Every structure is written in C-alpha cells, then in structure tokens.
Amino acid sequence: MCMNNVWGTICDHFWDEKDASVVCRMLGYSPYGASAIKDTYIEGIWYIHINDLNCTGTESSLWDCPMNGLHEYSCSHYDDAAVACQLTDVKYSTCTTGEVRLADGATEFEGRVEVCENRVWGSVCTVSSSNDGNAYTLCHELGYQGGIVLPNSNFGVSNDPILIYELSCGAFQSKLNTCVENKIELYGGPSSRHGNVRVCVNGSWVMVCGYNNTVIDNNLASVVCPALDTQLMCYGNESSLFDCQYNTTGSCPNVYNAAVAVFCLLNDDYTSVNCTDGDIRLYGGSRPNQGILHVCSNGIWGTVCSNSKWNNIETDIACFQLGYYSYGHSSIRGTTNGLFPIIYSYFNCQGNEATLFSCSSGLHSSIQYCTNNVIKLNCE
C-alpha cells in the first residue's frame, strides 16, 4: 500500500479474510473467495506501514478500516500480509468458510468434493495415493458413516477454483479442514522462520526430537515423536521431511526439552553463493583486512550478532583464520544493509581453536532484532 508517496507492506496481525476481501475489491478483483495469507516475506526494502488492520469486509478501501501504526519490534517483514484473489466473474454464494459438499454425483451420497472459502465454492486437488481416511472424515462430516475415495476427477472437472491442494485425514478427524497433509511449522520462536519443528501427520501435530541423536546437522533430522515414535533420516536433497528414510524404532522422553529447532533462511538470489561451510570473510570494508564478519553455513554467507560472548579471543581466532596476525586488531559493532541474513548469535572460543567454527556457537531467540549489532573486524 502507498502512504505518503512511499510503498510499504502490512503486518499480518489480525489479518483475515475480511481484510483480504477489501484488498481484492480495491485491486479490481472479486471480494468473494479472497484468501488471507500470513507469514510471507518481502525483502526489507519497503516500509511496514500499518499493523492490527481490522476490516469488516464491506469497506471500499483499506483506509476505511480500523488500524494501528507499527510499534517497535511488533512486526517484521517475515510477517508481511498477502492475499489470493479471485476474478470478478467467480461464482459466490451464501456458504460459510469451512463448509463441504458433494457436487455432480448421480445421488446425494456421491460427488466431487467441494469446500467453501469466503462465500466461494471450490474443489480439492490431490496428487497422492487414495486415502480412505479422507473419505471417512468427509462423509462423517456430512452425516454419513463412511465412504471410499474415487480419484482422477471421477465426477468431472469443476469450473470453480481449486481451494485445497492436499489432504491427509485419519479415521478420527471430525472436520475436513483439520487434515491438511504434511504441513510443517515452527513454533515457540519469535517469528515464523525459526523455532521448534513440528509436523502434521494424520491430522495431529507431532514434534521432531533430537534426544540421544548424534547425527543432527544441516541435513539430518532425528526422531519424530511422541505420536510417531519414528527415527527420521534426511540427507538434505529431499523436498519434504516425508520423503526421508525412517524406521519404527526410537523414543523421545521429555520431548519438550529435546525438540529439534531450526533457523530458516529465504530462498533469495543473494543466498545462492555456494560458499564452503566453515569459511569466513570480511565484507564491505575500505580495506581487505576490515569489514563486517561473514561466516558460511550450509552454503550461504551470513553475519554474526554482537553480544557479550564476543571478545578478544574470538577476534584473535577470526583474524588468524583470515591470515592476519592474532594481535593488533579490534572488533566493533557494525550495521548490515539486510542483504545477508544473521545466522549466528554467538561464537564462544577458548583460545586454542584454529578456526572460528571449532568454537561453540548457536542461535538465539532475539536474533531477528540484531540488524544494527553485528560483528565488524579490523585485523592487522
């Protein structure tokens, strides 16, 4: 949206289909069938203009809706709001979001599955093998005892939009919209891009556990529990956790303390540099021996947050790794322009390490607020 002649984004706090309807109406699309999408990302060259937008859905403009300004640290670009609009000729009805029905069947007991979103009926696409759990859940929601799946558009192709792309229901779900297959989310962190890992399997959330597992690194996951009690082994080239190898052994006591956590980076062009893990460099300085410290992790360059753990010992080791003397240097706080993600919140060295990555290191929940507080070195 444009404010004071400057384009900017909207924070997704309170973002829902009513807000999405107003946006689509302003853009010349139908307000019906508008989907509110949260936790998207726009590279931080835009301002975040507003927060807590709360439309009724009938407004002709966002500026007619109640809203708040952005409070400090209340939202980041990882919380940018987005919408999916339908064309103006989309058919709309009085249905309620979440309703399901059967269409184009010979009897009331069969038909193409359709769901309602924001007063628009649409179909469900599935590319996986048939799942009778899906049929059971749908039929149970419609008041029947059970059913079977008839794949491959058995009742014809719908002219309405596709609203759901994959389902995975067990035999105990009572609603179809609780069964979105293979959904993965991060929870318990300060933003949607880092936190503890959990996955949705057969309509239930299960956590990924690292208890007693020595192979957790950038490629390998660990034990999925408590519901699965399964060891999950990934090699880094899979497109989904559900493509990984697994067996039915393993356990995860005290899962809340043993849960695996990750920090995710966006698939932007600037991260595709394919550096070698463990490499470091100085970037943006006026001379080769000075600049913001960059570290390579999992094939990308990133920065290090400055905090009380970084001192002369860490600076010694970093400068020595770069080929400079381990004395006559200084470390200061620098700023980054946002082109490189902040990967590490700290390195903690003992002084006898040959490289920075031989030291202990880690991420921290406040890392997203470290933009103006990264390590900058002046080696000699």
UniProtKB/TrEMBL annotation:
It is found in: Membrane. The keyword Protein transport does not apply. This is SRCR domain-containing protein. Residues 1-86, 100-226, 280-380 form the SRCR domain. Its main location: membrane. PROSITE patterns: SRCR_2 (PS50287). Gene3D superfamilies: SRCR-like domain. The keyword Methyltransferase does not apply. Disulfide bonds join 11-75, 24-85, 55-65, 169-179, 349-359. GO terms for cellular component: membrane. It comes from Amphimedon queenslandica. SUPFAM superfamilies: SRCR-like. It is a single-pass membrane protein. It comes from the Eukaryota. Keywords: Disulfide bond, Glycoprotein, Membrane, Repeat, Signal, Transmembrane, Transmembrane helix.
